Each structure stands twice: as C-alpha cells, then as structure tokens.
Amino acid sequence: MHFLHRVYFRWYLVIVFCSAVMSIFILNLSSLFTNIIKNEKRIFDNRILSNRLPVSLLARNQNRLDRLKKYYSQFLNLSSFNQPKGEKTMIYSCSSICFGWGDRLRGITSVYILALLTRRRFMIAMNHPCSISHVLQPNQIDWRFQNLTRISSKNRTRLIINVMPLRPPSIRTNMMKLIKSQDFYSLRSEYDDIHITTNAFYITHALRNPFTNASWLLGNLPLKQATQELLFPLLFELLFKPSLIVRRGVEQILQRSHRQLTCLHLRFGRNPSNPFDVQMSQRENLTKVVLEFLDNNPCLVKPNETLLYITSDSDQAIQTILKSYPTMSITVPGPILHIDYANHSLSQKSICNGFIKVVTDFYILGECDISILCRSGFSLWANRRRLDRNSQLFLYRDDLNRIKKIKIHVIELIVSLKWIFR
Fold it and tell me: What is the value of pTM for the model shown?
C-alpha cells in the first residue's frame, strides 16, 4: 500500500512539473507574440491619413519598405535575403495554368525562399497570360529570367517540377514530403537549373526542414514563428516594384481628394463577368450584405471625406456600388477576368489589360485606410501590404452571411499554436 502511495506521489510530481513547464512555455510564447505585435504597432501606428502621404506610388512603396526593414531587422538577418552568388539557379516558372494572382504570389515567394536556402540564384519566368514585365519590375532583388543555357559555355542540366493541383495528387504529396522532411537540397544539387511551377505554401515547411539550418536567414526569429504569412510583406517589397502602367493606374485613384480610403473587394466566383471560375453559391447576396453594412456603419463612408474604392470579379456588383455611392465611389477601368480562366472570346491584348488591372487592384488594396474583404488569397495577401494591416479590417463570413471585424495577428497566433501542438 505504501509502495502504491509512493508511485502515485511520484506521478503527481511529474504531472505538476510538466504542467509548470508547459505554463512557462505558453507564457513565453504569449510574451513573444505580444512583443512582436507591440513593436509592429510602434513602427506602423504612426501611419498618416491617405491624403497626407505622397501620391507617387514609388515614394509610398519606398516609405513602406523602409518601415518594413526597421521592423524585420529586429529579428531577421536582412542581408541574407540578397541574391546568392553562383551559377546555379532556381526559377519560378509559369507558362500555362498557374491559377490566380494570390496563388502565384504563394508560389513565387515559396520558390524565392527555397532558392535562398539552397544558395541558388532566384529568377521568375512568367509569360502567362502575358509577360510579368507588363506589371512588375525587380526592386532590390533582380529576378529577371535569363536563359543561361544559351549564354553558358557548358551544357547545363535542368530539372522541371510542376506541382500544380491539375497534376496527380501523388506528385504534390511527394514534393511536400521532400520540402518538409528530406534533404531536398542535396538530392537536387546535381542540377544547374531547377524550374518549379507551384501555388503551395512551402516557406513554413522549408524553414523547419531538419536538414536546413535557417538561423543564418531568420536571425533571432524562432522557427515556430517563421511563417509565410509573417514574411510575405517584406518578401513582396524586396522582390517587386510596379511597372509604369500599373503606377499610373494606382496614382489616378490616389490623387482623388479624400481623407479616408475605404476599399471593397467582392469575390463571387462564377458569374456572367467571370464564367469559367469556380462556383461560390454562398455569396449570391454579397452585394446586398455589403450595402447594408455600409448603411449601418456611416463612419466608413463619410460624405466629403471618403473615397470608396470597389474591385470585384463581377461587373454587376461594381456597377451596383457605383450607383449607390455616385459621388464618392471609384474603380479601376478595364476587363474583369480571372487571369487563368479568362473568357475565350477575349483577345490577347484584352487579357493582358485584364492582368494589368488585377495587379493595379492589388496595389490599391495595400493603400486602404479601411478594408472590407472576402476570404480570398488575392485580397488577404494585398491586405498584408497595408501599413497597419489590422486597422479597420472587416471580412465577409461565408458561414454567417455577415461582415465581421477581424485581426490578422489573432489568426496567426492560432495557426502557430496548431504548429506547436500538431
């Protein structure tokens, strides 16, 4: 009997000790998130109203990049994000179906981090639906594609990896296993040029790969917090600056007199303007819900102060908003299309103009004081470019058929805890 008591007592001590350790761990994690969020607010909360920032998009983007560097330099080795030296390359490739702009940004930033981790020069080869040079130019990272096979004196070896959802599921599964837990970097080192077509989230997995020591890149940032979502704002600005035609489109919106830029992104899926997209039947009443929300929250559309910007994959929704707020609403003109599911009757020139409109819309959504969005990779990535991404951020909930105010860092905290306890 005494022996059993001693056993139970020992187990009790073990349980108490483990509980104490777990409590300290969670408190430290919470403290880390609190410090990151406080530092983010300290750097970004001195955001000025839209009308006081320069109209020049390049000037705004430089201001944004300066602030991002100040924030991320607290825990990242920013110099390590420069192009590696050497002849081997890793290329994000898009010559046919690569899905929408949000999918492509996932793929581009994923392949960029893979290139850094494997010490390869990063390039982008995108000519579908038209050349990426129509909409974007290199910023601090020169990713312009060069066919080194034509200019090199040696015969270069090439590996082509296509893991888009249209490919067999086993290919995508094997690639993810390779990124997560195998020595991807040594297994593929024999190739000079690696072309990857993907829309997957690889950054989070690649940084945690047991064969990768990412500390030279991440600095003081714990691996558990190194996510694609956290790094995206910095990666996008390092990689890209808008082309002249995109800049002009954005600046035509910004130069309109306003003290408050309220932005709507309404994503419907398949509709008369976008007949080949996926069906989203739960959003049939989206326009009505948005108009009722604006009517019930007049501070979001103040007369003589607000510029209401609307973008959507539905021309009918855009026209309804413009008619409802005729003196304060605006949109970017141009063909409405999904860049991979454009109407077959459109000319190549119209499709390229639609691509220009997509990227112009993306940049404008990064300048908003108030954002009312649908769950869409396109608008959620765009929102991460805002100087204060949580300020006046509202999301249409498909399950509730309502618009709710949200905070992004709460979502990130939940995701990080899932990673820790998975």
Answer: 0.85
